[in-house]
Amino acid sequence: MSSSIRPTTIALATVGALATGFVAYAVYFDHKRRTDPEFRKSLKRESRRIARAAKEEAEAQGAQQKQAVRNAVTEAQEEGFPTSVEEKETFFMNMVGQGEALCQSGESELSSHEHNGLIQPLESTHIEAALSFYKALKVYPQPGDLITIYDKTVPKPVLDILAEMVAFDGTMPIGNFGGGSGSDAGGSTGAIDD
Predict the structure, then answer these.
(1) Which of 16, 126, 132, 164 lies 20 to 30 Å (CA to CA) from residue 172?
(2) In this predicted model, what pLDDT tens digit does every residue of 135-159 receive, in sequence order?
(3) What are the pLDDT digits (tens) for 10-64?
(4) What are the tens digits of pLDDT across the range 49-89?
(5) Radius of gyration of the chain, Cα coordinates, nearest whole angstrom
């Protein structure tokens, strides 16, 4: 009989050695964290540095999104809007349909990719959807009523971008936007100011 080591024994020994190594490192790290003040300070510094970098990145993305919203509104205003009733009706239906389709594609992207670095394309989809809803709002005869419908049906990220667009436009006579029934009765848009 030959003394051969079975592959399962080798695999179990390897897994055991790796698990033992991991546990040993965890114990060492915990001991170091508890007893070495300099190590604790370096961990805190690293944590603060990462938090500061994340905050700066979020602020930069927010500024980029605001600029993209402004550019989209300016471009839409330069393109102009239909003037006849029939053209407005067709334009309205097309824009609402396009906005709903973009919202649906944005939700399916989010659920199928679960945040794997797709923040930028998702924000872009939200901006495009909000722009479609904004264009529909511009040709709708009573924008306040449409806002109430949007408030109930449009996803919050898209609605927030739409609020920025309306605030940037400033020419639409809209009362309570995005605030529901109990918000600001003074007639402001309720959107974020610059």
Answers:
(1) 126
(2) 999 999 888 889 999 999 999 999 9
(3) 999 999 999 999 999 999 988 988 898 898 899 899 999 999 999 999 999 888 8
(4) 999 999 999 999 888 888 988 998 889 888 888 889 899 99
(5) 27
CB 164 within 8 A of CB 69: yes
| Contact criterion met (CB below 8 Å) for 166 and 191 | yes
Q: What is the dihedral sign for C-alpha 41, 47, 50, 54?
A: negative
Alpha-carbon gap, residue 186 to 189, rounded angstroms: 9
Q: How far apart are CA 124 and CA 173, in angstroms?
A: 27
pTM above 0.70, yes or no: no
Report yes or no: 137 and 146 within 8 Å, Cβ to Cβ: yes
Neighbours of 61 (CB within 10 A): 13
Are the CB atoms for 163 and 130 separated by under 8 Å?
A: no
Indicate left, alpha or beta for 148 from its phi (over 0: left) and psi (-120 to 50: alpha): alpha
Amino acid 183 reads S
